[in-house]
Amino acid sequence: MKGNQRLWHNLTEILQTVAIALMLSFIIRLFLFQPFYIPSSSMEPTLRPGDRILVNKFIYHFQKPRRGDVIVFRFPLDPQRDFIKRIIAFGGETLEVKNNQVFIDGRKLEEPYLPPDIRFGNYGPVTIPEGYYFVMGDNRSHSQDSRFWGPLNRKYIIGKAVLIFWPWFRAGLIR
What we know:
It is an enzyme of class 3 (hydrolase). One of its GO terms (cellular component) is plasma membrane. One of its GO terms (biological process) is signal peptide processing. By secondary structure, the protein is of the alpha+beta class. The protein has helices spanning about 5-30, 145-150; strands spanning about 35, 50-55, 70-75, 80-90, 95-100, 100-105, 105-110, 125, 130-135, 150-155, 155-165, 170-175. The protein has one domain: Umud Fragment, subunit A (Ribbon), CATH 2.10.109.10. Strands 1, 2, 3, 4, 9, 10, 11 and 12 form an 8-stranded antiparallel beta sheet that branches. The chain has a 4-stranded antiparallel beta sheet with strand order 7-6-5-8, with no helix packed on it. Strand 11 and strand 12 (about 170-175) form a beta hairpin. The protein is elongated and about 80 Å long.
């Protein structure tokens, strides 16, 4: 190959590689995993302001959301904003908060992820409509959640928060 042909060949290979990498990253972000930034303290101590997390966007195509899952969703009152909370109750269940404890259909919900001295008052009882979820922040005294804006329709769920990847010293699975 002559000098100009070799240069053109190398440039074409580089452009093809960059195009494939961009296309793969777009597909991964759109359908599989997406990074999110935690801007508030509503999920402390599980997540802290400034944490960067990875959300699995395809898992709920294969399984239903589970109680205790930390999810990212579009805020129902302003779908341009993303929120993150924990699933507490499902459609058809009755939820009540008494003396800083959550009861589902009259049974106390064990919540080992909450700080021991947290205070979040009383609420309900409310029955969750089918196809909806009741979500709450782990930092309940500083969380705007289903207690304030109602149950979350399934259609707003983006995915399950699975991993903290930044800061590096807090990296790990989200429980």
